[in-house]
Inverse folding.
């Protein structure tokens, strides 16, 4: 029997004997309204004597990724990846010089790339993410993440995850929740590292995707990533992605931007106990401060909705003792 | 603590103390090559001392549904559902009389419906499965299954599941596998009952789907099922559906027809220990006998591939002591 099973057994026994809810695990959260709201919700849905008790199979929590679990400034990590990759592959693709968006990306002219909007970003994603198998893409992503550094913090991107949110993921799982990522980011960009970094298995990652085709190549069954959008898991796409992948309405949703609005609406509109939370980036010193006017992680309508709907708003500056895990 | 957690704890403790693999749970399987192949594979991948040991997170088993877990003759259950439903709704849709396929379905002229091929079937699915929320569709499916009876066995469809396969699902889960359904049938046609009947949670069901749209209706966040195909999870679609939903290559695949061929190829072509199995319907007396010439559950190329690839072929007549669970 392996370590994981042993740990699960010990946890189960511990729960048997004590009924403890592992509240002591939210160590990086300051005492305050946000922490209290989380603990109170978890207590209500896990206490068999509570009228709000929810059976473990229905304890589903969904988390946005960019800006909710890891840094999204000064740009989405996946965009940094696409930019590095377009520059790396450019010598083999002289035809890219004829495409204004790709040329701008190669030249590092981010303003032109940004001005091309979603269509420009998609174009960038197509040429850098397709034309290989999922396994090959997995390797490309893993290699890049092992080397690339964030421009300000000079740390690997997978180190720039929010420690309080890692604790929250574990706390929920310790209390019988299944935790899902539901992100506008690429599903196959996140899966190579989501288990190691977040404890979230590949099957529990929902994201945007390009089309994939199955065929037998030289006698070998092969999946090939194609340069065509399959699904955009953002905004009104998030409840659709949740319905497709999870097939149950979550009871808790965690986001940080207007791209999470519909996920929070869909989650909290269900019957019974519901929980919605928004991470508000208020800490320019330790991380970033941005909301209504930001290009990445634009938070405007969802902030108003939080007030109207009673969702918990995390004030990063005052609610979090620590932002990132300590450097190793 | 609820019963389920108690049972899990007891199972975990039992595993701790004995390392037992619950082999005694395949009670409806006759001793023979098929049962031995299953037990030997499970033993190899769960024994930490084996060079073929697979960690629990990678122990993924995928099961076709129609003809692999439940009866698919004389027609797919979902087709029987669509036919009943088109007749039920026909009085409100006089325009359906102008459509040859829908008119044939209403009149019970199955020959004309069948002659319309996949396109005809899709037309039938569109008009009977869309125009409502997933929750409403869930209710429609549940209501129908609670009343409808199989024409030959005079039992509810959810009673016409294969007892040996139910035991196999449990046996794999007891050995740390996660079991998925990967079916050409509708994902939202299976999810309402998959947990109760198979112990397979909604998130572990992969299937065909129509498009779903999110919108706010009268202030209420709503998902609406639309009359447009989203994904066909059959044939070459199965490895694509697996990659999308599970994000890992399974180590074991179970099917019964050519629609499962690519799923079996994809699963068994991976590195390390792999297992492929085909249920061969050879028992006209207790169930049905069909393969190379059958319209439903057509098994031709996959049967040849099984011999060439060394996949296990279950001879229903000789390998299974019982076909269905006893009537209650």
């Amino acid at each position: 029997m392996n370590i994981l099973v042993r740990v699960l057994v010990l946890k189960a026994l511990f729960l048997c004997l004590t009924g403890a809810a592992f509240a002591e695990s939210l160590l990086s959260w300051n005492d305050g309204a946000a922490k209290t709201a989380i603990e109170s919700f978890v207590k209500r849905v896990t206490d068999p004597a509570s009228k709000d008790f929810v059976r473990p199979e229905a304890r589903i929590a969904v988390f946005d990724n960019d800006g909710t679990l890891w840094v999204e400034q000064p740009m989405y990590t996946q965009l940094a990846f696409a930019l590095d990759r377009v520059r790396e592959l450019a010598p083999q693709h002289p035809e890219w010089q004829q495409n204004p968006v790709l040329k701008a990306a190669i030249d590092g002219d981010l303003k032109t790339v940004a001005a091309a909007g979603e269509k420009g970003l998609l174009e960038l994603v197509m040429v850098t993410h397709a034309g290989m198998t999922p396994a090959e893409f997995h390797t490309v992503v893993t290699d890049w993440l092992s080397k690339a550094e964030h421009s300000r913090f000079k740390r690997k991107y997978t180190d720039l995850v929010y420690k309080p949110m890692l604790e929250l993921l574990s706390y929920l799982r310790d209390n019988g929740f299944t935790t899902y990522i539901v992100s506008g980011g690429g599903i196959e960009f996140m899966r190579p590292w989501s288990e190691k970094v977040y404890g979230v298995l590949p099957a529990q990652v929902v994201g945007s995707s390009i089309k994939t085709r199955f065929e037998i190549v030289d006698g070998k069954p092969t999946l090939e990533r194609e340069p065509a959008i399959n699904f955009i898991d953002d905004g009104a796409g998030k409840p659709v992605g949740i319905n497709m992948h999870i097939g149950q309405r979550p009871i808790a949703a965690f986001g940080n931007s207007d791209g999470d609005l519909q996920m929070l609406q869909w989650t909290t509109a269900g019957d019974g106990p519901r929980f919605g939370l928004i991470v508000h980036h208020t800490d320019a010193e330790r991380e970033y401060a941005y909301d209504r006017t930001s290009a990445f992680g634009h938070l405007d309508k969802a902030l108003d909705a939080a007030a109207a709907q009673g969702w918990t708003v995390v004030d990063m500056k005052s609610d979090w003792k620590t932002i990132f895990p300590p450097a190793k």
